[in-house]
Amino acid sequence: MSSQDIPEENLPAAQDHAHGSVSVADEETPFADPGMPPHEHRAQDIDERAAKRSERAVALLFTISMLATLGFIASYVTIPHDKSIFVFPIGHISALNFALGLTLGVALFCIGAGAVHWARTLMSDVEMVAERHPIAAEPSVRAQVFDDFRQGAAESGIGRRKLIRNTMFGALALVPLSGVMLLRDLGPLPHNSLRHTLWAKGKLLVNVNTNEPLRPEDVAVGSLTFARPEGLEETDEDFQDQIAKAALMIVRLLPNDIKDKQELAWSHEGIVAFSKICTHVGCPISLYEQQTHHVLCPCHQSTFDLSDGARVIFGPAGHALPQLRIGVNDEGYLEALGDFAEPVGPAFWERG
């Protein structure tokens, strides 16, 4: 419905506002002012029932936002952090993260949508014209302001009473530390967790596919096997955190093909164990070239030579893969003889 279809007596009263005068182009003002277009009334300006419908729609959006906020709080309190759900087409995800993201997103969206709908349908849409004027103050006003400032500074004694001035600056500088200290509650401190993994002397190398401890005869020459530490199970609460540091790849080489002396000393009958975590951005390495003994990171093509201490021969990785010293226990199973000699992955190197 347009304003042309409504009788003149039903239209809202004209408001007293300036639309700016229309000017004509001439030599002094080559660009003419076209003026403001005629104002067209909305349905809500004409029909009170339409205005009520818009009012109820805005109130509904705000109410949904309130309910979503309550749902966010309830989700945070009641949903276990280790519970997962299946969401098509994403797959299995954390139920808590999904609920928090969904409820908070709905709450914020409804507030924004309600405010926009309120502004577009119920608030005044009459365009107002304000003639521009010089922003800068008059020279006399500027001079008066500077004089008042200098007089106030002199009367306060901030320049003469240095003890008060310096302690005030110190207090203002230190008080923000109170807010910084609150960041301590965002999570546990890492301490030295980046320097250590679950590998330790006597830990068996467990095949990630069979969940069985590995013997030397299980690793054929030229094969690539992935292993995890004995005792680490997928059902453990911290499995993802631990496997991200302890993931291991095992390759059997001919002893004569191993160029690095330390690598040979830390191996067992040509079986070498290196971290599976790329030293670039932490991607899992899984591509092995048997003839050259090179492993390739699929993310950014960093290439490591497993016959020469897993040094970088191509790509953006800046460090060789850490090697795990291994041996065989009395029962004939492969075991670790300690932890990695250096932190695995990229985080340690990037953070110094």
UniProtKB/TrEMBL annotation:
A GO CC term assigned to this protein in UniProt: plasma membrane
Quaternary assembly: The cytochrome bc1 complex is composed of a cytochrome b (QcrB), the Rieske iron-sulfur protein (QcrA) and a diheme cytochrome c (QcrC) subunit.
The protein's name in its UniProt record: Cytochrome bc1 complex Rieske iron-sulfur subunit
Localization (cell): Cell membrane
The keyword Electron transport is assigned to this record: yes
Location, primary (coarse class): membrane
Domain Rieske: 240-335
Annotated family: Belongs to the Rieske iron-sulfur protein family.
Region feature (Disordered): 1-46
Gene3D superfamilies, per the entry: Rieske [2Fe-2S] iron-sulphur domain
Role of this protein: Iron-sulfur subunit of the cytochrome bc1 complex, an essential component of the respiratory electron transport chain required for ATP synthesis. The bc1 complex catalyzes the oxidation of menaquinol and the reduction of cytochrome c in the respiratory chain. The bc1 complex operates through a Q-cycle mechanism that couples electron transfer to generation of the proton gradient that drives ATP synthesis.
Transmembrane segments: 58-79, 99-119, 163-183
Single GO term (MF): monooxygenase activity
